[in-house]
Design brief:
Blueprint: H1 2-5, H2 13-45, H3 63-69, H4 76-92, E1 95-96, E2 99-100, H5 105-118, H6 122-135, H7 142-155, H8 159-172, H9 179-195, H10 199-212, H11 216-232, H12 236-249, H13 255-267, H14 276-288, H15 296-309, H16 313-326, H17 331-347, H18 351-363, H19 370-402, H20 406-441
Helix pairs in contact: 2-4, 2-5, 4-5, 5-6, 5-7, 6-7, 7-8, 7-9, 8-9, 9-10, 10-11, 11-12, 12-13, 13-15, 14-15, 15-16, 15-17, 16-17, 17-18, 18-19
Length: about 450
Amino acid sequence: MVVIACSTEKTGLVNRKYHATTTKYNVLYNGTVSYDRGLQQLNKKYVDDFSEVISVEPTQQDEKALIITGASEKNPHFQRAEDKAVKAAQLHSMNVAGKEHNPQMDEAYLLLGKARYHDLRFVPAIEAFNYIILKYPNSNLFYDALIWKEKANLKLEYHGLAVQNLKKIFRDNEGVLKGQTKADAFATLAQGYINLEHLDSAKIPLKQAIEFTTNTDEKARYTYILGQLNSKTGLKSEAVQNFQDVIDYNRRISRALVINAHAEKFSNQDINTIDTTAFVKQYLTLLNDRESRAYSDLIFHQLGVMHEAYGLNDKAIKDYNMSLKVNKSNDYIKVANYNKLANIYYKQKQFETAGMYYDSTMVFMNPMSREYVQVKRKRNNLIDIVRYEQITKTNDSILGLVSKDDDQRRLEIDKLIAQLKEQDDKKAQASSQASNSTSGSA
């Protein structure tokens, strides 16, 4: 009986039940558990760049670089999920006379495609989704496969094609898409419009995604993105309300999203309508909150922005430096801090100091970005200014010496010689210590 039931070439009731049950409760169960663990690990490691419009879903870091170099470190959970999906297809598929008799095969191929998608192998992922679309048109996962295919197309930067296909899905299947599948479709369409920089067009499907999804994290994330889009398109009051909605989720969502929503809400408000006392009190409360300590760099930065907005540059400089001091890994916050400090010193006509901060800003920026080019242009413009300023200082010093009598001139020269000797002594001492340290370690 067992030997007969194991056959995939016979389509009797016992064979179908055996392979469906084994696929569902053994192979696919283990594969789905591994896939879920992979997603948890991905979400735990993922850090959003809040200086840009965040994506509708967390994705692996440095995606393009990993694809181009092929240096992607394989996620063992996604690899295991793929192996289980392949095993299900190889050992339990009952495709006889062109018809599949194992009802779990569409689940296996969807798991296969999703595991490949999250492993950044988008073309093989599309192959798996296409298999469902072609072979299982009556499957309840048919529309999921269509949507996941367009998500993969977006990752391959076929933005226009993905948007066109998604609009066709909505047009041809009105009333069929429901629940979370419909929410995913709207979110994917919104991401396509964002990638094409059609921000106004992205708002409509994003609002629909917020309405249809039942996942709290997704609702908050989509609402935050909607706030960013409203901010970029000049609808400041709507953006403030969106970010307040995110803040109201409080501890039910990611702390990073809540803290950044506070920052975005402030930046979109009219500075004349803000109660500064309440603002500072609120941010000090956030600083004292243990769960917010990991985001103290952002909190200090936002305090700096507030102080700078009111012309309190000394306090702003202190806040930006504190943000840099407590910052661990958020490069976009480092860029913002260095750039703010550079701009303050530039306005104060301390051009040499401003140039050094612009240099630090560029270290943490993407050299291919538009913002990098803008900062570099500012820095290059300062080169001549700093050079002329140094020449002016030197000339002023010489003229100052010339205008003094012989005794005063001699005192100034002796003082300068003493300073130079002291500097030389410190350099020699440091060099000697370094040499002794090297010989001692050898």
